[in-house]
Amino acid sequence: MAEQLSGLADDRALLGRTSTAERVSDILRSRIAEGYFPPGTRLSEDSIGGALGVSRNTLREAFRLLTHERLLVHELNRGVFVRVLTVEDVEDIYRTRGLVECAVVRGLGEPPYALDGLAEAVADGQRAAREGDWKEVGTANIHFHRELVALADSARTDELMRSVFAELRLAFHVVDDPRRLHEPYLARNRQILQALQDGDRFEAEKLLAVYLSDSLERVVEVYKRRVAEDT
Question: I need a labelling partner for 142 at 20 to 30 A (CA). Which of 51, 94, 100, 211 fits?
């Protein structure tokens, strides 16, 4: 927890003089999405409030917002915890991803497309893989899909998928072999990027649909095995 709190203290400057619960929730959501707070982590009001320099009421409102987004849960007399997903949650996340991400690619219109963000995410993933940092590979993968959604140039779509991708990070935490999960998608991300660079959004959508189906199968397999181990 000390490392996480140190990172939050670095985010304090982002709040500025107009600190709000929405800004606090943005910071915490990003930290959850980046894997700083794994599923089941209890979030201390005193520690996090102190690290960010915000009031207890502001922090509680931020917790409420993130609970509404299904990233946190409040347990009576115990506190607030980062949510532990179920198999059904994972399936619903991927169903939502398929509906939104494929629709974004399908609706891109005529090339060329603004692909700098996608290319940067691919490069970040490759660099992290060379360094053997598979958690960071997972982060780069999420960034890739966030940039893919951003191609729609829709604030509403970005907002919808922001919490979906944060939930996805919670799903990744149960994977006991992150390299096995993430490594195959390095090449797949490159293939999708290449298809879009070639102006072939139909090929990119086809690659993406198969990608998401395979990823769902892998993650659900892990979840079911973990559930079996815990019962």
Answer: 51
pTM for this predicted structure: 0.81
Q: Tell me how far apart the alpha carbons of residues 21 and 83 are, in angstroms, rounded to a whole number.
A: 19
189-231 per-position pLDDT tens digit: 999 999 999 999 999 999 999 999 999 998 888 877 776 666 5
Q: How far apart are CA 190 and CA 200, in angstroms?
A: 14
Please name which of 160, 127, 166, 143 lies closest in space to residue 36, comparing C-alpha atoms. 166
**Range in 46-60, 61-75, 134-148, 161-175 with the lowest mean pLDDT:** 161-175
At residue 16, φ and ψ (nearest 5 deg) are 60, -155
| One-letter amino acid for residue 192 of the chain | I
Structure tokens at 110: 């005529």
